[in-house]
Amino acid sequence: MFNDLRREQARILIVDDVASNIHVIREAVRDLGEVRFATSGKAALDIMQKSSPDVILLDIEMPGMDGYAVCKAIKESPRLRDIPVIFVTSHDQREHELQALSLGGVDFLHKPLNVPVARARIQTHLALQMKTRQLALAKKDLADVLQHLPAFVAHWGGNLCNQFCNDAVGHWFGIAAATMRGMHVRKVLGEANYAAIEEHLKDVLRGNCPSFDLTFVRREGSLLYGQVSLVFRPDENGRPGFLMLITDVTERRCAEQALYDEKERIRITLNSIGDAVIATDTNGNITFLNPIAEDMTGWLSREAVGEPVERVMPLRESNQGHGMFNPIRLVLSEKRTVGMAMNCALQRRDGQLLEVEDSAAPILDYAGNLTGAIIVFHDVSEARAMAVKMTHLAHHDALTNLPNRMLLQDRTQQALQQAVHNGERLGLYIIDLDHFKVINDSMGHSVGDLLLKQVARRLMGVVRPCDTVSRQGGDEFIVLVPDMGAIEQAGVLAGKMLKLISEPYKLDGNVYDLSGSIGVSLYPDDSVNQEELYRHADAAMYRAKQEGRNRYRFFSAEIEEALLTRQALERHIRMGAEQGGFLVYYQPKVDARDSSVVGLEALLRWRNDKEEIVSPSSFIPLAEETGLIVPLGLFVLRQACQDGKRWGGLGHRLRIAVNVSAVQMMGSDFCDSVRTVLKETGFPAELLELEITEGVLAQDVERTMNVLADLKSLGVSIAIDDFGTGYSSLSYLKLFPLDVLKIDQSFVHDMLADRHNAAIVAAIVSMAQGMDLRLVAEGVEEEGQASELLKLGCHIMQGYHYGKPAPADEIDALLNIDPRLAIAGEAQ
User: Fold this and answer.
1) pLDDT at position 573
2) Based on the structure, what is the number of domains in the chain?
3) 353-364 and 338-339 as β-strands: parallel, antiparallel, unpaired?
4) Which intervals hold domain PAS (predicted)?
């Protein structure tokens, strides 16, 4: 304690009017603190006002203001009255000591001083003063703590009336501490709160110290979540009482509620999602399974908790069934997200395997420390099965289940690589069913599909397991034969396939006959790569069709040339007639009586890649087969009308004949196309002559009659080309609205030498005259033919005797049209 005082440097004031006395006393207390002195009462009071001492050593007898007066002044000062005053005097009378103590003095020292006793007494009073100061400071600190404590602290008597409260401003229940003193707890807390706490109040008054949580309703209506502690504390008289401590835990409760809500939200989410979720601790033992995980693993959550993840979720390799490492273990060891292997399967508790996939991830706390792991996965068994099925569908024909074009290309490339490596022969067969469209159109696609399935089965039955039968769409099949062997074997296989295809087909009691055309290409005999194999086999198949169908043909140089021509023609047709090298030539029709040109037949020509002019017989069949004859025919019609309009404007009113194919006639918009061309070019309809063959008349009589009637309504003329060579009945001449008969050149060519042909020509002329039809003789090459035809009554002739087919500018010269006028006419 003495050391504490020295550290705090106690202040000692000596008041005495005798210097020797001051010296004695100062020497006695020198080492007890800071020593100051005053020689009068007034001087002492001045020093005290400036710096309060911790103890005052006061002489009684002093001039002016004695010690009693000074002590009285000290005790009257609120700031100084607690300072201990020790009287020092030479008087020993008891009445002086009693008077000094009655004025507030704490001790009495007699002169001359007994220094050890004086030091001990002074030191004791300094210690007491220091303790008093510390207690005062502690009391103030406690008051400050209570004042600013974020809690409600109150003392209540046994009658439940308030005796103390730290809520100075009434923050908690709207009642300030001063107002609350003496108030009953019911009034302070309110009825609702009192009802909730009443039993606890009874409990504390019985000497217990209950602690509980309570939701208080503040006076303004808001809720206060409080943690309440009641401590039994009787008053100084031993009467019952208690302390009430309420801590505001609203924020904590709200956080707990929010945490609960969040956990509940997560729980509902995990239990509701379509994926399985399993959580583990840091040892890989199960801590959570959601319902989907329960269903997929076969384990209930209460059974699985605490079990190693490998037991609840054993993983297997899908194909081989080998055990697999659970991703949870890698997550726990490396603290990173890990995906499942693509071929992973979960073995359920009942042994069933489920294809699964997804990923596992670590669970980290706020400090980044690993607390466990979670794995999320779902059943992909159906998805993987569907993927396998989709892959199969992507590479196989949906109707026949044969490999499609994509898969065949892949197998062909592999077979070629094998053939190159092993020095083998490879065969490719393209099979096209003959006239299959007729069956589809007449019997329906359902019958056609059944037939295609039977053809596929027959082809599969004739090839080896290493061969590939593919359907490319429609009625076309391709057979790939690796390691072919001799060329003779290729022919034998083609013959077998033809024979199988040709055998009758029985469907629903009906019998159907089919045949096929097969083209064969061989590596390395005629092809060096996949593209050539397909192209050459297709060319060979096309040749088989041209030669009568129901046969097979190998590829050759001749077929190659024909194939190139066909490709070039098709390319030119698709480019557009104007840009594709197509030209319109005209052959004059002459009145033999005066050798005047009365009309022209428009004839299509093609300038190929070699700048050669190709006749229609070389490309019209292909154009009709592909349907490209329609844009070509429209091109000829428009060009002929444009040229006819130009010649008419130059004084030559000529009838222009344009050939029409069966494909054009059967088109739904042919009449509209003719009407549009006539309107666009301004060519008179009565000068347009449309030539059709007898075969067109026989295809669909009713439709043809309607089309011809529509054409006649436009004002155009209808001519029958190559009359006498077809298979139509002569009655058609009466049925159809015809205007012109053209005698086929085959009859005209031999009419002078063959009396039969002469008779046919005569009969045709006579019939036409009888039916009031105009006549045109084709193929007139000699003067004798012309003379004989004139005698018979046919005077309009066409042939090399009068002029070969020529371009429009040469026709201008034939008509004696000045080139300048021709150019001007074109400009118009």
Assistant:
1) 72
2) 5
3) antiparallel
4) 262-314
